[in-house]
Amino acid sequence: MLSSMAAAGSVKAALQVAEVLEAIVSCCVGPEGRQVLCTKPTGEVLLSRNGGRLLEALHLQHPIARMIVDCVSSHLKTTGDGAKTFIIFLCHLLRGLHAITDREKDPLMYENIQTHGRHWKNCCQWKFISQALVTFQTQILDGIMDQYLSRHFLSIFSSAKERTLCRSSLELLLEAYFCGRVGRNNHKFISQLMCDYFFKCMTCKSGIDVFELVDDYFVELNVGVTGLPVSDSRIIAGLVLQKDFSVYCPADGDIRMVIVTETIQPLFSTSGSEFILNSEAQFQTSQFWIMEKTKAIMKHLRRQNVKLLLSSVKQPDLVIYYAGVNGISVVECLSSEEVSLIRRIIDPSPFVPPQAFSQCEISNTALVKFCKPLILRSKRYVHLGLIGTCTFIPHCVVLCGPVQGLIEQHENALHGAFKMLRQLFKDLDLNYVTQTSDQNGTSSLFLYKNSGESYQAPDTGKGSIQRPYQDTVVENKDELEKTQTYLKVHSNLVISDVELETYISYSTPTDTFQTDETLKCLSLERNRLTDDYEPLLKNNSTAYSTRGNNRIDISYENLQATNITRKGSMLPVSCKLQNMGTSQSYLSSSMPAGCVLPVGGNFEILLHYYLLNYAKKCHQSEETMVSMIIANALLGIPRALYKSKTGKYSFPHIYIRAVHALQTNQPLVSSQTGLESVTGKYQLLTSVLQCLTKILTIDLVITVKRHPQKVHNQDSEDEL
Amino acid sequence: MSRLEAKKPSLCKSEPLTTERVRTTLSVLKRIVTSCYGPSGRLKQLHNGFGGYVCTTSQSSALLSHLLVTHPILKILTTSVQNHVSSFSDCGLFTAILCCNLIENVQGLGLTPTTVIRLNKHLLSLCISYLKSETCGCRIPVDFSSTQILLCLVRSILTSKPACMLTRKETEHVSALILRAFLLTIPENAEGHIILGKSLIVPLKDQRVIDSIVLPGILIEMSEVQLMRLLPIKKSTALKVALFCTTLSGDISDTGEGTVVVSYGVSLENAVLDQLLNLGRQLVSDHVDLVLCQKVIHPSLKQFLNMHRVIAIDRIGVTLMEPLTKMTGTQPIGSLGSISPNSYGSVKDVCTAKFGSKHFFHLIPNEATICSLLLCNRNDTAWDELKLTCQTALHVLQLTLKEPWALLGGGCTETHLAAYIRHKTHKDPESILKDDECTQTELQLIAEAFCSALESVVGSLEHDGGEILTDMKYGHLWSVQADSPCVANWQDLLSQCGCGLYNSQEELSWSFLRSTHHPFVPQTCLPHEAVGSASNLTLDCLTAKLSGLQVAVETANLILDLSYVIEDKN
Q1: What's the CA gap between B274 and A280, in Å, rounded?
Q2: Beta carbons of B271 and A58 less than 8 Å apart
Q3: Do B291 and B204 touch, CB atoms closer than 8 A?
Q4: Residue B108 has what DSSP assignment?
Q5: A23 vs chain B: nearest CA distance in angstroms?
Q6: How would you classify the pairing of strands B345-347 and A675-677?
Q7: Using one digit for the tens of pLDDT, what is the confidence trace for A481-509?
């Protein structure tokens, strides 16, 4: 009893937490979003519309809130987008779940759900739901993406084979991205800047490795300048090092460069050795030798036409002096990131190993186009005209802004955009389970497609299902006997299943549009459902014979669990039924890189639509319920996006138009220009579901008042 | 254990601008900056309750760096003004006041921040494109062949900083000095890419301002005793200079990570000293006349050099190294032996000089792009203020060299711009709105807020209860003294507009700045003869003002866009 109360409380608590977070993030979501000002403990001020940053800045204490924030940041780390949508979606999911428990307690509704209510009240309900969520995420979602959503996808590439990118589509993508990331008076400018940067850095051979390079070294590839208007931001060719020359000797033409990581001047003794001075003359000779040696090395460098020396350490005065005498510019104290960036850009790298100097053998020099000081707002930088490889042409972004906080915001947004592009340029693997063989795959597809029309003509729908069924029976005679017995068992189940279907559709009227539709088709559904069971069962057993054992075991566990929640009294029968009958075909497919959809909640509305259709068709109550909850929660995102819009552009209008277009097989028309990455949306969905699963599996939150370190350890265990 | 302390939760406030506290603090800041603005601005005395230095100022850079601002919104405002000032030196108060006004004026209009920001941005780009266009009626070309306009520019900057405490005569003197110092930094025969030299400001406190002076070359301050010891050199040709950046004190340099074992009886000090004396011999044989060292020179070496009639000066410090390198054309030497002959530089002459109570060693260059401005003022605070002002003026002159235009000062640019915007938004609102979702009414509201923000900036030029008027032809600013009798005939009361370009003898009609008046077309395209005839104009730096305008609007937009403030309480 105690644990169940705590479990129920945990969804409620999570909902409360999520609603608070939603209130904060919803103010900066979408194109109409506004800025949030954060102060750091050091007193610096930071402007942000980045959901992840906001959530971290809040320093939340509530354990569930902290868990949510952790989930968001790990999601952001890979995708660079979607923190705000994460919270909104999670909040709507929790609301959907909460609504179910509330309804259960409602005495008016009690009769409807009497048979199930008993079971729901059993202690483990949240755990089962969370398992259903896992099943959904691992087995169903990918299938819906692959089978239904994929036909709506557009590609960012103008030619998919060569992956060539045209500027206009990238502009649309980036504009939509920056709309939600930077202040509205700057987003156009920043997205143009990013677009320019992208096309200046890329060559025709560039691939995903460029995004990785820029993503990894973004800090080194941009320079922030305060005190200038944002519109002064620009892109400059080459690399800007954020330090000044130690010696600068103007040079033209063929400039060669070397990188060193140790002092060039030989020292008296190296680490671990001992230098014994016996006389004053010896000391003077050694000093003289050191001097002459340094001089010789620098002369040698000049003969090699080396005019630029980059050093990761501070060089002694002597080296600097002889460099100056020999017309070699020197930049000292490069950070290790800068060195590794240069080494990645230039191939082969002009890195000189320490021992090379003693032998005066310097072969690894690299050519630079120019090397000159760059003055940005009276601060001096080193500007190198590095010649890139065939995949990356080095360029730097100079970001200007009146305050540092704004520059940082733009920097983060640009970095995030590269992360997003990095994800977009990857193929996405989809693995899912279908419960039918190929034949029925197509037939069920047919059903979905025509789900709108099948209400008018249920007879044709029936026919199309039954035909493949008969075929399979003939093919699998050896399995026939078994299946028939289970069919008998199953006929008992059918009625209650339909009841459950009714219950679900009544129980989710959070969204008025969808409910109407479900109610309309309910009477017809009754017919269809009974028919549907037969081919499905039959085919499950067909596939069974060809499946490996281990896989089935895994899926069996999940299914068994879901069955328990479904029908307590019939548990042994249905469990056995599933054991025998649930053989599933595992399909894998992949979503090609560069899939995009128009912005403005298109992904959510599409997925919502297909999930509802799926839910109508599936027979397990948990699956139906989970699909419905997710489908309805998805609508929360476009609703938040269109919050401030009125009339033709308000959410109900958009939604009705979209659904109508889908039912009549017409293309969707988006009111906004702009594109968004499908991969990003998909990853967001899975991350949220994972987070929700985590929340649901917690039944008790125990507060421990001990040393912070201990508390922290406990937290991290919980999170894991 | 303290490091493991759990973080305190942050404080999150929504709609920060609507709270009373923010409004109060904003208006306090606004009062502080407005009261400082202009030639008759009031001074602020800033001092720390724990003692120490008292600063009397009316400049934004000094004021804002001393103010301790805690509210994050105010912090955004002050940092963005400070950042602007550190890049352009001028127009800090203008930026701050305009920003405060813009924020204040749109509150209570009842428009969404989106609309306000969008329209503000349109109006800003309207201003920028007008100020940059050929038809602009409030900017004049700067002619570098005569000093007239440049002097006006410098003088305007000096007069707008009352805390310098300069008399009229002193202002003239310092303006001329600043201009001279600036002109000395321009290389004589420059082709293509000009690299400006540097004006070093040398402090000379407790002297009359009139005693300030500009000298070509570098002044190195020394005690009288040291100076006496230096022997006078009489040489007709240029003097050969060696400039050392490494220490000549006889320290043993870095010996590496291993150990160095010195046998008994071996004196490294002697060995190093030998080395130094060898260096001395080389310098003498190379006929070096002057040895300068950033760090310390060993007394023995010093004496050796003096014996050979070589002047040795040490402890020059890192700040003088760059101008010295530039002026003498040397390569700073980092070696104790085998000096390349190319590393030596030269100066035309050296002499000693005494200004006030201070003694200086003066290096006179062959070709001067480095000069020293000996700046005098009566006391510390006034000197600090004057120094800041001089730096501002020098920077403004540099900016003007890059963009040879100046804006009419004295508030005329602002009133003219406001009149232009009003007229533009009334006549042709469609071209501004284009395809935006904003309505014309919204545009009128915001344009009015924007223009009145600009006008109240110049309104704050008047601190003595006077009235501010604007004429209906040029859109310039005219001010009337407080105690003047209210008469219908403005022409007798007014003499000159704020910038001094027009006088009241023309047939003009005036109206109060704050009163509502019909939009009119301010005269664009400044006639050339008008500029030529006027000798005493008040001018502003175009680059600084443009950036100030942009920063003010951008910052105001940023602050208006805030929906939450999250304060980290750790």
Answers
A1: 10
A2: no
A3: no
A4: T
A5: 10
A6: unpaired
A7: 443 434 333 333 333 333 333 333 333 33
